[in-house]
Amino acid sequence: NEDELVHDGETVQEAFDRHIVDHKRCVEANEKFRKLLKCREKLKDIQDARAANREEENDVEDDDPQLTGQIKDAMNDVRDIDTGSGLTLQERESMLNVDQKRIFDHVKAHLLRQIEYENKSKQEKGQSESVKPLHMFISGVGGTGKSFLIEAIKALVKSLWSTLTKQTCVVCAPTGLAAYNVGGVTAHRLFQLPIEHDGQCASYWSIPKASHKVMKTELQDLKMVIIDEVSMVSSLNLTYIHMRMNDLFESDKWFGGKNVLFVGDILQLPPVRGQPVFDKVTASTLKYRLGSMSAVNIWRDTVTYDELTINERQKTDQKFSEMLDKVRRGFSDDETLATLSERVFSTPIEKKFKIVQQGGNAPVCLFPKVDMCKDFNKTMLANLPSPTIKIRATNLIDGTGSIHGLVNGALGTVQAISETRITVKFDRITDPCEIEKVKRKFMVMKNVFVYRSQFPLILAFAVTIHKCQGLSLDNATIDLSENVFSAGMAYVALSRVRTLSGVHLTCLNPKSLMVSSRSIKEINRLRQLYRPDLPQYAIPTDCGSRKRTLTGTIDEPQAKNQKNMPPPKVARDKRSRPSD
User: Fold this and answer.
1) CATH among 3.40.50.300, 1.10.1660.10, 3.40.190.10, 3.40.50.150 for 35-308
2) Considering the entire predicted model, what is its pTM?
3) Which one, 375, 430, 537, 569, has the greatest CB density within 10 A?
C-alpha cells in the first residue's frame, strides 16, 4: 500500500531514502542482538559446565564452617553498613544539580517502567515488551558528585521497593576506603570473588551449598547493584561478578537479570593487575580461568553511558580545576608544571605532617607503593613517645563475628591498647569501637591450611594512592616521584584535594603525570554513542615521558608550642595477614 510507504508531504524518493536508513538500522540492531546472544551463550556454557561439578565441590568445602561464617559476616556487613545519612529521598533529590538530576530522572523512569511491567498480569506481560535491566556507566571527573548521586539512587530504590524486607540496593567498590566512602563493602566481599595469591588473579570458584544459601537469602530482594570506582575493576572480575550473580539468582541473563550501575572515571586508576574493565577478556585467559575457548567483552556488549560534567569539589578554586583537567587528559603544559612545582616542599615529611596537623587539619600522606607507606608508618610509629608493645600472633579455633559493620579501609585513631582488644575512634562513627582479634584461614600449599588470629588493623599515617580513590580531602601530602607507576595515579592523588593550597608535594617528576590513551579512546567511543553533545578528547602524543624532576619550596610557618607526635592512625584491615 503506497499510503503506508509514503508519509504525507513526502516524495517517493524521500520515502525510499528513509526506508533505506530504517532498514540499515534494523540490520545493525539485529547483528548486535545476535552477538549479544552468542556472547551470553558462551558464558552460560561455562556456568553449566562448572555447575555439573558443584556437588562434588560442595561435599568437601561445606565440611569447613569457617567459610560459611565469613560469608555470614560479609552479608551482615552489607546490611549494617547501609545506615544512610538521615536525609529523605525528597531532600536528596532537591540537592541534586541539573547534571545529577538528569541522570537520576533517567534511572527513576526506567525503574518505574520495570515496576509497571512487574505488576502486570501474566496475560498482559505476554502482550507487551519486557523492560530490560539497566546496565549503565555513569562517568565524571573527580569531584562531580558521583558519590552523592549514588546515595540518591540508593534512596530511590529503597523507596520504590519499600515493602520488601531484604536488601534492594547494594553498593560496592574495589577497595575498602572507596566502599566505605559510599556506604558499601568491597566487591570481593559482596560477591565472594576469588582472591589473588602471589600477585596472580585466582580462578573462579563455586560457592558451597550452605554459603550459597546465606548469600541468596540476604540478597533475594535485590533490584540494583551499584559498583563505584569501576576503573579499578578488571574485565575478568567483571566476568566473575556476572557469573556470581547468575549463579545466585539462577538466571542466564546479564548480571542475573538485575540492574547494575557502574560509576567512576576510567581515566583514573586502572586495575592493579588485569585488563581495564572495558577490555575484552581474551580467549587464553578464559580458557585458563574458566575453561572457555572464546573471548568475551561484557562491557562493550551491555553497558550504556552518561556523564557528569559539573565539578563540585574544586568549584571554589577554578584555576585548580582547570589544571586538574589538563593532568587528567595528558596535556600538562609548562604552566601546570610550574604551578605544581610551587607546591613541592623541602621540609622533612615527618615535620610537614606535624605542621599540617597543628594547623587544625587532618593530614593524609599518599604514596604510590605499599613499601613506601610501610616505611613512613614505621617512622611515624618510632617517633611516638609511648613504649613499644609486641603481641604475638596466636592460633585459635573459634572465629569472632563482624565488627560494628565496618569495612576494610575504615580510618580511625587508636585510643587504648590491651592484649585482647584495641579501642579505636573511627572517623565516621560517633562512639569508640572495641576491636578484637579475628581468625582467618590461609593456604600455605595445596590442601594445607593455617589459621591465624590477629587484630584487623594496620597503620595508616600513610596510605597508597590506590586506596584513596573516591575520597575528598582538605589536605594531602603526595609523592609524585619516579615511583608513580600507573596511568591516572597522579591525577587521582591531586584531585582528592579540594583546593590547590591543600596540596603538598614531596617531589614532582613530570613523567608521573601519565594517562592511558586506550582509556581516552573508550571515553570517546562512549561519548559518540550516548553523549554526542560532548566533545571528543584529543589523544596526547606523549602520555608521560618527560624526564626532568622539578623541585621547589613552600614557605613553612614556624611551628609554635610543638606537641608530641599524634596517636597512631589506623585503617581497618579485615584480611588479618600473618605476622612478618
Assistant:
1) 3.40.50.300
2) 0.78
3) 569
